[in-house]
Each structure stands twice: as C-alpha cells, then as structure tokens.
C-alpha cells in the first residue's frame, strides 16, 4: 500500500480536501485504485452533533456514518463509497484506546499518548486503507490521507507524531507528503510573500514530517522567482512546487495539477512510474470545459436558515450543479433566508423582507433543504405554499418534505394547528411525529441513518419515472421525525400522494402533488449520492421542471408567472397594499455566500 498525506499550513480553509480529492483523481487517471481517509483532530466522536456553523454540512455515508464534508468531496471526485471508519477523529481514537484499557488489553501498563494513542492511529490507518471502496475486490493501490486543521494546532499533535512514525515505518518509497500552504499577495505592493509558507514548512519539519511537494494557494500563478525562493528555503525540488490558483470551478483542480506534472512527482516518490499509465482525463476535461460554454442559466431559490454559509448545504449545491450541467444550463442559486419571508421581518426589516420575496418569486424553482429546529420554519412553510399555489417546481428534502406536508394540512385540510411535534409537542394535529425507535436522551448517532430502501407505491409517479421506473431505490437518510402514518389517509384523500414508502408501508419516504408540474418531497437525502456525470434523479427532475418553467415564462413574457400574470404572494405585502414585488436582480445584500446570489462552483 502506498500513502499520500495532505497537510495544511498558515491558515485553515485553504482547500486541503479538494486538493486531496484532486490528487486521488490524478492517480485514478493514471490507472490506480484509490481510497481516502480524513483525520479530524476534534474530540467529537463524529460530526453528527456539530452545528453547520462549526464545520459545514454533516455528510452521511451508506453505513450511517455522520462525517466531515470532505468525505463528500472524496466520494464525488473519486466515485467511491466510503465507510464511517474512513473518518478518524480524536474522539474515536481515545474511545478505542480507553475501551481496550477497560478490557485489560494493555496488561497493566500505563496508557499514554505515546505509544498507545499513536499506535492506535497507525493501526487504524492501515486497517481502513485495506477496505475496498470502489466496488471491486481487494484493497486499493494508494490511500490519500488528509490531516485536518493547521500544522501547529495543539489538538493535532498526536496525529502528527503518529504520522511521523508511520512514514518512517512504511519507508520513503511508500509515503509522499503534500503540504498545502498560503502564498498571500499583499494588495499594497502586489508582491507574493513566501515567509508564511517558509515558517509553516519549518514547523512541519520540526515535528518530524518532511514535505515532498508544496501546493501553494494563491490568487494567481506563482512567479518563477517565488518558486525558486520556496525551493531554496523549504528544501523542496523546484519541480515539486505547485500553484493552486483561483479557478472558475473546482473541476479544474485535477487538470491544474496534471499540467504541472504533479502526478509524475508523486509517482516518482512512490516508485510507481513503471506501472502507471498516461493520465486519461478525456471525460473529466469534457465535463469541466463544457460548463464554461453554457449561455442559458436556471435560477433556484434555496430557502434555509444557514444561507450565509454555503458549506452548510454543500452536497445540495453540488447535486444542483450536477443536474444543471446535465441540462446544459449554468446554475444560479438565490439564497433566501427563511426568516426573511416571515411577517415579523416585514415589521422589523421591510427591505430584507421584500428582497427575500423578490428572490423567491423570481426563481425558476424552489428547494427547501433539510435542517433541525424551529427557526425559519414559518418562512419555509410560506415558500412551500407559494410553490404549491403558483405551480413553481418544488423539491423538499427531509425537513423540507415535512414542511410541505404541514403546509398542505393547514391550507388544504383546514387544520391551522397542524404541526410537527418537533416544533409543537402539544399540537392537536401532529402531521410529523418523533420516530418510536429514536432516543430522546442521547443525540449522537441515534437518528435513522444511512442507506434505507424505499418502495414505490405508484408506478407512473414522477419520482418512479425519474428513477427509471424502478420498483425500489436505496437512498441515505438522516432524521428523527417522520410523517404521522395515522394522518396519511386523510392527507391522500385531500390530494397528496405518498408514492414512496419503506418496507413496512408505514413510513413515508416520497410525497408528490398530482397535477402540479413538479412538487416532490423526499424524507431521504438524495444529494449524498449525486455524482458528476450521474446526477441525482430528483435533482434532475427539479432542474428539468425549472428549465421548462423558464421557457414557458419567456414565451408569455413574464419572469415570475407561467400564465403571465404577476400577483403579490407575500402575506404581509398582500395585507398592506396588494402590490406585487418586482422581479429579483439576484441581490441579497451580502447574505449570499458571494454577495450576489450567484453560486459559483469554484474557489477551493
């Protein structure tokens, strides 16, 4: 087994995950099988209980592992299926060692960070590296390991010590270290500064790890004299100093590495030159370049409560991107803070309220993603109501599906107090309830997690057709509340159709609104299995319907209404003066990730 370790220095957020994924793609293109491991030095056992504000979205694996979002990057780039053990945390390692100590496995010895913790880390890496993740038998050829955090962090010291020992034990021809660092450009003088990287490499060497390659993040390509200075002071060959400059989208990164012959440097260090093939990037190049040729765009309103942090919905954004590429459209995501759609915002901040409703009404499709807690629920409910009443393509994921059911019960069934017991435990009409098998005392790892089977109940439903008329599908889940099975008959009599259920027939998985162009809710998270070139069927359906709506709007000369009539839909605006809002120009006053409502699948 060969190992490639990716570390980071100077600051966090440089793109180690994308760099590690791109190195994996590069090695795959050379004919090697690749697996991945992400090391997160925090004490949490997994990412499941952390807020998206801490580490972005929680990515869910087939086996139910709640892991760091970088594992999502690995799966999407390499088209693999990882396990929860592919994400190592300090919490897992210490729990593993303490359990061994309690069993008496250490035979009375004093249990210490060195050697017991460091040995456990090395054993874990070697064991997980042998697990096949590409659907083939036998272990991979190369394991790419990403060490989270920044060199010098106290919490990562045991891992750095373990990896230093590991590199010595497996030998230099089986271990390659790629250090990702920052080369800032001072705006005052416009000069690329190498000192931060020099200090980072010096610190790395002082901890027992020697970098073989430097991957330097900068806003532009490194000047030759800058590379020369880095080579001289960091003791890295000039040919092994790589530029990771800003690119239009992250699919360019593997090509950027290939053009700088990063694969040749890595293969030479790992002594794999004799068995490697010339990198085949035909499909990857086609996918990367074609996006830049699209002239048509499609607008999707993302209604959530973490709209100021795009990483909170990273997999959803990637799935939308995969689907929009398949339909030859550029993707524009309008970030709509759910709370800004609510009447309270109309009173407190009318401008934010008008902007939010303008974005919603100007979109070709609406997506309400998953989430927890009652903040923004009223706004999400209003978004679902607007989509249902105005034939706007709608996709609700997890909580988004539950919101759609609650809104339908209130508006169509005439049950104004219909709610989820998550938000109102005493609701007289609980449309959504806590799952019987869930735990109310422990939060971590107690949800319905991982790959579960959904059986289609209606063969000619939109969802079944999108999945190729399959009789069942397997998708990943992450929820502790479900649609109340005792209300299904009442809801279906009123017009909702629960077209997908679990094996018992009592747990609702997919809901549709017949007669609507596209109104689908899914209890599972289809975004986690979406891949470039193989988009999620439900996301494909949303984008297709949104593109059709856009064409229809063009033909009628109105951007907001398929029938050419623009009416005010925000409740407070109706109550105040009945005047409709103007179409959106994409501005969200800086609350979108890049300040203009347009999601650029790009910067590392």
Automatic annotation (TrEMBL):
Species per Swiss-Prot/TrEMBL record: Pisum sativum (Garden pea)
Extent of Low complexity compositional bias: 583-597
EC category: ligase
Name of this protein: CTP synthase
InterPro entries in the record: Class_I_gatase-like, CTP_synthase, CTP_synthase_N, GATASE, GATase1_CTP_Synthase, P-loop_NTPase
Protein family membership: Belongs to the CTP synthase family.
Presence of keyword ATP-binding: yes
Function: Catalyzes the ATP-dependent amination of UTP to CTP with either L-glutamine or ammonia as the source of nitrogen.
Catalytic activity: UTP + L-glutamine + ATP + H2O = CTP + L-glutamate + ADP + phosphate + 2 H(+)
Alphabetized Gene3D superfamilies for the sequence: 3.40.50.880, P-loop containing nucleotide triphosphate hydrolases
Phylogenetic classification of the source organism: Eukaryota, Viridiplantae, Streptophyta, Embryophyta, Tracheophyta
